[in-house]
Design goal:
Distance between the termini: 55 Å
Helix content: 40-55%
Shape: globular
Structural class: mainly alpha
Strand order of the largest sheet: 1-2
Number of domains: 1
Strand content: under 5%
Order of helices and strands: EEHHHHHHH
Largest sheet: 2 strands, parallel
Mean pLDDT: 79
Low-confidence stretches: 1-6
Length: 170
């Protein structure tokens, strides 16, 4: 993780996000899209990911991202550049089966974040590996996304939004 500590102080956050904020402010899958060289997009479901991303891997990464504390979530940063590893349907099924089997094995009590992180690491070892990017290349791509992000419209109160719907434009 040491090499990724300096990725712009990028902050992984829970859930999906409209745009990367000044400190990153995205989930792991949104950061992975940018790291892989795609334009930023919010991700609500793994099916929204570009086809070069492994669905079972991204689903587990999303679960980890959303279950983690803010501190734990930052341990996912080294995985940002590793999720674009989609393989043949057979390998993707193998990954899915492996993940399901490991998660079911402990159905009696919940897995810790660290245990799920190990499952992610092991699942990533199955099949094709993502093209290795240097931390500098990842940093550059994430920085570019931050700088080109268009902030959302000014935050208006709910009452102001309702009035805007019903008051005719001048």
């Amino acid at each position: 993780m040491e090499a990724f500590d300096k990725i712009l102080n990028w902050k992984l956050k829970r859930g999906s996000h409209r745009f990367p904020g000044p400190d990153g402010g995205t989930c792991i899958n949104e950061a992975a899209i940018v790291a892989a060289g795609f334009p930023y997009q919010s991700v609500h479901f793994v099916e929204m990911m570009p086809s070069c991303f492994s669905r079972p891997i991204c689903r587990l990464a999303m679960d980890l991202n959303d279950m983690a504390t803010d501190e734990q979530r930052q341990h996912l940063l080294p995985f940002v550049a590793r999720l674009a590893c989609a393989d043949t349907p057979k390998v993707e099924r193998e990954r899915q089966d492996y993940i399901a089997r490991r998660l079911r094995y402990r159905l009696g009590y919940p897995l810790t974040f660290q245990e799920k992180l190990e499952i992610l690491e092991d699942a990533l070892a199955i099949g094709r590996q993502a093209d290795m990017l240097s931390p500098g290349e990842v940093t550059t791509r994430l920085k570019d996304a931050q700088q080109s992000a268009t902030p959302p419209a000014a935050n208006r109160s709910k009452l102001a939004k309702l009035k805007a719907w019903f008051v005719p434009a001048a």
